[in-house]
Design a protein that fits this description.
By secondary structure, this protein is an all-beta fold. The chain is 0% helix and 52% strand.
C-alpha cells in the first residue's frame, strides 16, 4: 500500500497550561481501505499520540468535500511535531485524489 506523511516544524506547547486544540480542514478522496491520520510526535520523532477512533484523529474513506476538525491535544507542556499521514492499506492502486490538509492552527482550548 501507499504511506505518505507530512510533518510540521516543532510546535511549542510549553506555554499552554491546559490541553490546546488543533483545528484544521481536510479533504479525503480515497477507497474505504485508505485513511488520513494525525499523529503527535516528540521532537525525536517518537509517537506520543497516534490518530485513532478514540481521539478523533483518523479519517477513513471519502469525506465528500472539505471538513473542519477541532481536537484537544493531549501532549501540552512540551514541544511536538504534528504529522499528517495518508495510509492506503489496500493495493498499490488508490482510487481518488488522496488526503489534503489546510488552515492548521493550535490554540488554547475554548
Amino acid at each position: 500500500g501507499t504511506h505518505i506523511a507530512l510533518q510540521s516544524p516543532e510546535a511549542d506547547l510549553l506555554s499552554f497550561v491546559s490541553p490546546p486544540t488543533i483545528t484544521f480542514s481536510y479533504y479525503l478522496d480515497a477507497d474505504d481501505d485508505s485513511a488520513g491520520r494525525v499523529n503527535i510526535l516528540d521532537t525525536s520523532g517518537n509517537i506520543l499520540e497516534e490518530g485513532n477512533d478514540d481521539n478523533g484523529l483518523i479519517f477513513i474513506g471519502n469525506s465528500e468535500g472539505w471538513q473542519e476538525v477541532a481536537v484537544e491535544l493531549p501532549a501540552f507542556g512540551q514541544k511536538v511535531i504534528i504529522e499528517f499521514e495518508f495510509v492506503d492499506a489496500g493495493s498499490n492502486s488508490t482510487n481518488g485524489a488522496g488526503f489534503f490538509i489546510d488552515d492548521v492552527f493550535i490554540d488554547s482550548a475554548k
